[in-house]
Amino acid sequence: MADLGCSSGPNTLLPLWEIMETIHSTCRRMNHQKAPALQFFLNDLPGNDFNTVFRSLLPKFYDKLEKEKFDKLGPCFVAAMPGSFHGRLFPDNSLHFAHSSYSLHYLSQVPAGLVSESGVPLNKGNICLAKTSPPSVHKAYEDQFEKDFTSFLISRSLEMVSGGRMVLTFMGRSAHNPACKYGSEIWQVVGDALREMVDEGKIEEWKLDSYNIPSHKPSAQEVRQLIQREGTFNITRFEEEEVSWDANIEDGNEELVFDKWARGKFVSNYMRAVTESMLTSHFGSAIMDGLFDRASSKYANYLEKGIGLFHNLVITLVKK
């Protein structure tokens, strides 16, 4: 099994735990005496902090596993597999199950074609797809996603056994809800804050105009067509769902109540955790506190209006 785009935070091993619980309950229901041994690969780019996973998170995971005392479970071996999931990672016919959550909307690179032949930025004033992005910019992002997602499918088709399954969750865009028209609205807020800082002279305009995030939120139709065109996998489930940007703020305690400013701060904090390294490399670290303070207020207003939403695509595929 493999978790593709695992990152290194507290949720890194959550998919593995849920998989093991499912295997455990299935074995009990079918009266199997013993489940097979499990080999689980954690995959992310080589720069991911795998040391944190193996030094801190994995020992706690094994301790919890021992305390739960799952009967009829075979041994579980966890290993790292650094590399880009847009290409090959595993031997032919070796994977039985692959999982990826909130990773596949990231591209292998910023799309080509975002600058004119004369060197003029075409997505001027934006850091992602937005209302003012010209059709050529939309096409460039769509083309890059098509290339990357097709490469992902081809690589997994070679690596997975016949009948192997994938569960993929990633951010998309909605054909019906204006709040998720581009799928990148949460990024647009950061772009709005950056434009304010340009107007105030805190950032040079060229820095904003020359920055674009390597992320594309596809429509359900785009994804279906690419899966069907590649032809190796059958779609067994395809769901679309919308969730609030602050959906996990209670952290399991539903009795907690937060005002809009606390909700905005929560969203701003996790966006900073996800994006700061990308933004710092281009804009520098000095503006980060001010940038995310501005974003926090903007996120609060979106949430208060009920338009701070992710449009998620959740897909189950079976290898033919």
From TrEMBL:
Q: Which UniProt keywords apply?
A: Magnesium, Metal-binding, Methyltransferase, Transferase
The protein's superkingdom reads: Eukaryota
* Organism field: Turnera subulata
The UniProt entry, under InterPro entries, shows: MeTrfase_7, MeTrfase_capping, SAM-dependent_MTases_sf
* One Gene Ontology term from the biological process aspect of the record: methylation
Query: Has UniProt tagged this entry with the keyword Transferase?
Result: yes
Q: What is the protein name stated in its UniProt record?
A: Jasmonate O-methyltransferase
Gene Ontology molecular functions: metal ion binding; methyltransferase activity
Q: Pfam families in the record, alphabetically?
A: Methyltransf_7
